[in-house]
Design brief:
Elements (H helix, E strand, L loop, with lengths): L2 H12 L4 H4 L2 H7 L5 H15 L3 H13 L8 H6 L3 H17 L12 H10 L1 H9 L1 H14 L3 H11 L5 H13 L13
Length: about 190
Amino acid sequence: MNGAVAARAASLLLRYPEPDVLATLPTLRAALDELPATVADPLRLVAAHRAGTVPTALAAEYVELFDLRRRCCLYLTYYTCGDTRKRGAALLEFAAAYRRAGLSIVDGELPDHLPAVLELAAHDAGGWVLLRDNRVGIDLLADALAAEGSVYRYAVEAVRAMLPTPGAADLAAAFRLARSGPPREEVGLEGYR
């Protein structure tokens, strides 16, 4: 499998549907022909949806799904760190991977934004390491998108197909986080409970 093509295609299909991103659809669709069906077929579903939907409707759908629903968050460290102080350290690790690769973060997003990490993976092995290390978040995102009935679940399923099969520890961690949700900050809150 051409991992760079697969990662780049998934990155584009999970980005906000701006005109320049939508303009890549014909090239992206052609590039899917060189990928295995387990990756290409789900990405084709998302590409077809984007090609067949009015851009304003795509934008509204994207914002409603990814910006207004925490369960469908594209920021990978949110799943394992929540909005705690630990998330800052995790974001620094992501940023360091971009620096080591000589890349800047896509679209000025946080470094753990899934489309940005996929873009990093298209250029550098460090992106694949981050994706594997954050498999729990990717799995939870896929489950949340499936529960919403969103076509974007297929793009995340394609990302999962690019990664090694999760181990027992990954599955257990995903189960725990699915039950409890992301961690919450506990420091300094004693007087408010």
